[in-house]
C-alpha cells in the first residue's frame, strides 16, 4: 500500500472491549476497511491506505480473531495470508461444465465461424461482439453463496476440478465477499489466474540462486502454485486473477450482454482485463483484434490470443455448444506462433518408461516468446528423415501450444556440407541392450526392463497421480533414489524406511515419513490402477480398466494369450500383444511376485448392480468425448445403474457420440437410436455419478 489521502481512521485498541457486541462491531469495521483497501489497491489501482496503516489495522484484526476465534468469518482478509498445509486437495463438480474454446488462426476462419453461427441464429450478425484478451494462465471457478466465497476450484477436466479455496483466498483480486448488488444467491464466477511476468522472472532468479530447478513458463507455474498444499507458498508467489464470465444455473442474471456482464463483475469487486472492447459487427471486431495483436508481447502478463464473443447473452443459449465441449458463441483468435532460427548442435536420445527411444535436439540457446530454449522434441527417427533434419543444421524452432519447443525443419540454404544425417542407435544409450523396431511402429524400443533410463521414467510414472499416487515422490526424488542405489525397480519402493530416506539429501524426517506413508497407502489401489502404473506399452488408464474388469485378477490376466486378451471389447491386437508380451518376460513376472509379496492388491473389486438415474438402460460409446475418457464414462454410467455394451442393437437406449465417431453412429441412426453428446449424458446423470 502507498500513502494516499482520506485515510479512514480507526483507533488502536489498547484494552480490548469486554462487551461482545463491541467486539463484533470492531471486527466487522476492521474487515470492511481492510477489504476496501485491498480492492482499492489491487483492483482499482487507487490506494487508500499507507503500508504502515494497513499493517497496523491488519495486526489488530489478527489479534482480535486470535483472542476470539468465533469472530473469524469466511470473508476476513486475514485468510489471505495462507494456512497450514492441507492433507490433500478435494474434488469439486462445477455448477456448469467449464468448456474449451475453438481456435481461429485467420480472418477467414473467423468469418467462417460467424457464417456457421448465422445459420443457427441469423441475429448473430447484428448482435455485436466483445473482444477480450485471452490471458495465458490457469482457469478457475469461484463459487459464491449469499455473496461470500464458498469454494474455489481448478478447471480440472471441465466437469470436476480440484478444491483450492485456501490458495485462491490468498490472491488479492479474488473478492472474499461480493460488492454492490444484483448478484444471485448462488453463482460461479469464472476467471484466469496468472503469474505476472515480473513475479515469474523474480521467482526463477530466486530458485536459480538456491540451486533449484527453474519453472518452464508462467502458465505451468501458475497452475502448480494453485495446487500447493501449503497456501502460504501460494501467497508468496504473487498470483493475480482476472474474471471473465458468470454462471448461475436457475437464476436470472441482471445483464443482457457480455459487455454488461464484464462491467457487472467489476462492480461486484473483480478485476476485469481493461483492454476489452465492444464492437458493432465482425468487421469492427477483426479491426480491434488487429490493433490488439501487437500489444500482447508488451503486457505485464502472458496472453495467447484474443477472444471474440457474441455480445447478446440471449444468443448464447440459442447457439449452444459443439458436442458439449466448445461454446459456439465464443472463439479464440490465435496468431501464428513465434519462430526462431538457431543451430542444431546435436541429436540425442532419451529412453522413456516403455523403452521407447525418443530423439531430441540440443540447440544453441535461443529466446522464443520470452523463454530461453536449448532443447526441443524431434518426435521420432521417421519424422527426422522426412524433414531431412541434420546435425549442424540451422533450424526453425517454435513452441507448440506456446509450451513445448519443437524443431519445424532445416534452413537448407544455410547448409555448408558439414552437416551429418542422424540414425537411431543400434544399442540403447543407457544400458547398451540391442534395440527393437516393431514392423508396424515408427518408434524404436529398448527391451531391457532393467534399463536405468526405463527404470527412472517407470518409477516416476508408477508414483504419479492417476497411477499409484505416491505423493512426494516425483521425478527428481526418484532420480536421487536410483543414484543412491536405494531402489532398482518399483518393487524396491516398498522396502524403503523413514531412516533410509531421511539419510538422503533432500529428505527431512517429516518428508521421509510422508513418502513412506504414501507408499504404504498405495498398496490398496485396485488392479486397474496397478496395471496402468506398471507402464505396459500401449496400456493407458482406459485399457487397464477394461482388462481389470474383464479378468478380475492379476493371475487370470497373466495366464491369457494375446488372442484371449484381444477378445476384450475395446482392446485391439496391438495392445493385446503388448500385454501378453509383457507377462511372457520372466523379469516382469518376478516383478509382479515381488509386488505381491510386498502386499499390493492384485484383484479388481467386484461391481454390484446399482439403482440410479440410468437403471436398466444400455449404452454404446463411440468417438472421443471432450472431457471424459471411455473408462470414466463407463464408470459413471454403471454407477448410475446403466450398462455399457460394445455394439448397437434395437435394445440400445442411446449411443453416446464424441469426436470422430465410427460406424456405430451410422448404425444407431439407421435403427432410430437416440444420439447423445457428453453434455446430454452428464445432464441425465445429474447428481448420481
Fill in the keyword field for this structure:
disordered N terminus, 22 strands, 24 helices, globular, 689 residues, 6 domains, 35% helix, single chain, OB fold (Dihydrolipoamide Acetyltransferase, E2P), Helix Hairpins, five-stranded antiparallel sheet, D-amino Acid Aminotransferase, Chain A, domain 1, five-stranded mixed sheet, alpha+beta
Question: Helices and strands in order, then pairings?
Answer:
Elements: H1 20-43, H2 51-67, E1 91-93, E2 102-104, H3 107-120, E3 129-135, E4 138-145, E5 148-154, E6 160-162, H4 165-169, E7 186-194, H5 197-209, H6 218-226, H7 231-237, E8 240-247, H8 258-267, E9 277-279, H9 282-292, E10 303-310, H10 313-319, E11 321-322, E12 326-327, E13 330-333, E14 339-351, E15 357-368, E16 371-377, H11 381-386, E17 394-400, E18 404-410, H12 452-463, H13 475-483, H14 498-502, H15 509-521, H16 527-533, H17 541-551, H18 554-558, H19 562-566, H20 573-584, H21 586-597, E19 618-622, H22 630-639, E20 643-645, E21 654-657, H23 663-671, E22 675-676, H24 678-685
Parallel strand pairs: 2-13, 19-20, 19-21, 21-22
Antiparallel strand pairs: 1-6, 3-9, 3-10, 4-5, 4-7, 7-8, 10-13, 11-12, 14-15, 14-17, 15-16, 17-18
Amino acid at each position: 500500500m502507498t500513502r494516499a489521502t482520506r485515510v479512514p481512521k480507526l483507533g488502536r485498541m489498547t484494552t480490548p472491549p469486554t462487551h461482545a457486541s463491541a467486539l463484533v462491531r470492531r471486527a466487522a469495521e476492521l474487515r470492511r476497511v481492510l477489504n476496501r483497501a485491498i480492492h482499492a489497491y489491487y483492483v482499482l489501482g487507487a490506494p487508500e491506505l499507507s503500508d504502515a496503516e494497513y499493517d497496523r489495522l491488519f495486526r489488530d484484526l489478527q489479534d482480535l480473531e486470535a483472542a476470539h476465534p468465533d469472530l473469524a468469518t469466511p470473508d476476513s482478509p486475514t485468510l489471505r495470508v495462507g494456512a497450514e498445509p492441507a492433507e490433500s486437495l478435494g474434488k469439486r463438480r462445477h455448477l456448469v461444465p467449464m468448456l474449451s474454446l475453438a481456435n481461429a488462426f485467420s480472418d477467414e476462419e473467423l468469418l467462417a465461424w460467424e457464417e456457421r453461427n448465422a445459420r443457427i441464429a441469423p441475429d448473430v450478425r447484428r448482435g455485436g461482439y466483445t473482444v477480450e484478451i485471452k490471458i495465458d494462465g490457469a482457469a478457475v471457478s469461484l463459487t459464491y453463496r449469499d455473496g461470500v466465497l464458498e469454494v474455489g476450484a481448478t478447471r480440472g477436466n471441465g466437469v470436476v476440478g480440484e478444491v483450492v479455496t485456501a490458495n485462491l483466498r490468498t490472491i488479492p483480486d479474488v473478492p472474499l465477499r461480493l460488492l454492490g448488488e444484483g448478484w444471485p444467491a448462488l453463482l460461479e464466477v469464472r476467471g484466469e489466474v496468472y503469474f505476472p511476468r515480473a513475479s515469474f522472472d523474480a521467482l526463477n532468479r530466486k530458485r536459480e540462486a538456491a540451486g533449484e530447478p527453474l519453472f518452464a513458463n508462467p502458465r505451468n507455474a501458475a497452475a502448480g502454485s494453485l495446487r500447493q498444499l501449503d497456501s502460504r507458498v501460494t501467497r508468496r508467489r504473487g498470483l493475480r486473477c482476472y474474471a471473465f464470465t458468470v454462471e448461475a444455473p436457475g437464476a436470472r442474471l441482471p445483464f443482457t450482454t457480455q459487455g454488461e456482464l464484464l462491467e457487472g463483475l467489476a462492480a461486484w469487486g473483480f478485476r476485469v482485463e481493461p483492454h476489452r472492447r465492444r464492437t458493432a459487427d465482425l468487421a469492427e471486431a477483426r479491426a480491434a483484434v488487429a490493433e490488439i495483436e501487437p500489444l500482447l508481447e508488451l503486457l505485464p502478463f502472458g496472453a495467447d490470443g484474443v477472444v471474440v464473443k457474441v455480445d447478446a447473452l440471449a444468443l448464447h443459449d440459442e447457439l449452444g455448444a459443439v458436442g458439449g465441449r466448445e461454446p459456439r458463441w465464443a472463439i479464440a483468435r490465435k496468431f501464428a506462433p513465434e519462430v526462431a532460427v538457431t543451430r542444431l548442435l546435436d541429436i540425442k536420445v532419451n529412453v522413456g518408461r516403455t523403452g521407447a527411444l525418443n530423439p531430441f535436439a540440443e540447440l544453441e540457446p535461443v529466446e522464443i516468446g520470452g523463454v530461453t530454449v536449448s532443447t526441443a522434441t524431434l518426435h521420432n527417427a521417421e519424422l527426422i528423415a522426412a524433414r531431412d533434419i541434420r546435425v549442424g543444421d540451422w533450424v526453425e524452432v517454435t513452441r507448440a501450444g506456446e509450451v513445448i519447443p519443437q524443431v519445424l525443419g532445416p534452413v537448407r540454404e544455410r547448409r555448408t556440407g558439414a552437416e551429418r544425417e542422424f540414425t537411431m542407435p543400434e544399442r540403447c544409450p543407457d544400458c547398451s541392450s540391442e534395440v527393437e523396431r516393431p514392423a508396424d511402429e515408427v518408434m524404436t524400443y529398448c527391451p531391457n526392463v532393467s534399463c536405468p533410463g526405463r527404470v527412472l521414467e517407470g518409477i516416476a510414472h508408477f508414483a504419479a497421480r492417476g497411477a499409484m499416487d505416491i505423493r512426494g515422490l516425483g521425478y527428481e526424488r526418484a532420480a536421487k533414489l536410483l543414484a543412491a542405489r536405494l531402489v532398482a525397480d518399483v518393487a524396491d519402493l516398498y522396502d524403503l524406511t523413514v531412516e533410509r530416506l531421511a539419510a538422503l539429501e533432500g529428505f527431512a524426517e517429516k518428508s521421509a515419513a510422508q513418502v513412506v506413508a504414501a507408499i504404504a497407502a498405495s498398496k490398496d489401489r485396485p488392479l486397474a490402477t496397478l496395471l496402468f502404473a506398471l507402464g505396459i506399452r500401449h496400456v493407458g488408464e482406459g485399457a487397464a480398466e477394461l482388462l481389470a474388469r474383464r479378468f478380475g485378477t492379476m493371475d487370470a490376466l497373466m495366464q491369457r494369450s494375446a488372442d484371449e486378451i484381444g477378445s476384450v471389447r475395446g482392446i485391439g491386437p496391438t495392445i493385446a500383444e503388448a500385454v501378453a508380451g509383457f507377462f511372457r518376460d520372466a523379469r516382469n513376472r518376478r516383478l509382479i511376485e515381488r509386488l505381491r509379496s510386498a502386499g499390493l492388491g492384485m484383484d479388481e473389486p467386484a461391481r454390484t448392480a446399482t439403482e440410479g438415474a440410468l437403471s436398466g438402460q444400455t449404452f454404446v460409446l463411440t468417438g472421443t468425448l471432450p472431457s471424459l475418457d471411455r473408462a470414466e464414462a463407463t464408470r459413471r454410467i454403471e454407477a448410475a445403474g446403466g450398462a455399457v455394451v460394445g455394439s448397437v442393437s434395437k435394445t440400445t437406449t442411446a449411443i453416446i457420440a464424441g469426436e470422430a465417431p465410427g460406424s456405430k453412429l451410422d448404425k444407431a441412426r439407421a435403427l432410430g437410436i437416440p444420439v447423445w453428446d457428453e453434455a446430454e449424458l452428464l445432464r441425465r446423470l445429474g447428481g448420481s455419478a
